[in-house]
Amino acid sequence: MTTNTKYDDLPSHEWLRRMAKLEDRCSSVSVGGLAEKLGMLGSQQLPALPPKLEAKALAKLVEFSRRKKRWSVEDLASRSGLTPAEALDAEEGDTLPEPRVLFALSEVLKVSYDKLLRLTGYVTKRDQTVETAAIRFAARSESMERLNSEEEKALHEFIRALAE
Amino acid sequence: MSEYPIAIIRREDDVVVKATLHDSVKPEDLLLVEEAWNPMRFGLHKKLLVENVDRADWPESLHWDWSKKAHQLQFLQATGFGITCEGAWEGAMLTLTVAHTARLTKDKGKPLVYIDYIEIAPWNWSVSPLGLTGRHKGIGTILFRAAVQQSLNEEFSGRVGLHALPQAITFYQDVCGMTDLGHDPKKENLLYFELSREQARKFLDVGGAT
What we know:
The complex is a heterodimer. Chain A is an all-alpha fold. Chain A contains 9 helices and no strands. Chain B is α+β, with helices and mostly antiparallel strands. The longest helix of chain B has 22 residues, at 29-50. The radius of gyration of chain B is 17 Å and the shape is globular. The N and C termini of chain B lie far apart (34 Å). At the A-B interface, helix 1, helix 2 and helix 8 of A face strand 1, strand 2, helix 1, strand 5 and helix 3 of B.
């Protein structure tokens, strides 16, 4: 015999409230069937950073480091061997700099060149520590004339992650 | 696709609000739903990192990226359900009515509805480490109820099966009243849960294992 159960067979509000209260005590309702089938289970890696965020993290690093040292963009360029245009592009973060530019920046900012390559995706082996540090750094406050204490702290933590 | 009037609860003032249950949502429509949810997922991801929340406390499905799986989704033999409220997708579910059979002894081998995917919109998540409590509640329960009703429609007597992620074990065991049948080595050792016909009746009548 067919049971003609329709989806508009609504529960009472009392039922709904009681169940919603119970559901509220739970962290999640997620299941793993489809995710396992599509190979998404067990991949606890971070999703790839959107290109904008990688470039933004790098741009902020360059800008904050320069401001901390009280350098102009020309100062940064001359000390790193880059052209002023290259230094400016690195700070704007619209595109990822070439490896040659990254190398020059790593030298003058005293951070790991290898880690800058991984951050920007030139080296494919992903470094979760660097990505985590980059997202955290990029998510912090926008720049001002002088670095405030929060920006200094963010810069210091990111540089430490890149230097390790 | 058919639409049915349902209700969910708005958390802010605990008011029951009107919503809509959609059936026959296509698996590839999942991408549209997830596209709507992605900005908030990413925002949560950043907040969790900035606040240095322990990874063990992150929502387990946070990092899933369905856009990379579009070409596989379209071949799924699945039925999709979704809940909208004021035009926004509040939850979605994909179920299978073939290829899965009951493992509980009493109805062993008989067909059941298998929940392959069920998700609630990120703005409805309660993320305690961030002090977030979500906009609506009751969505998971309503979707699960739809799966039980589908099982009855299919003459499967209300039987439902699924593999729960660890953070969802309490929901399926204590709220939905399902039976824990142990870790399944064929599904990355996730716990497999099943709802019997009796448990289905109880769920619909009084709800859960309370």
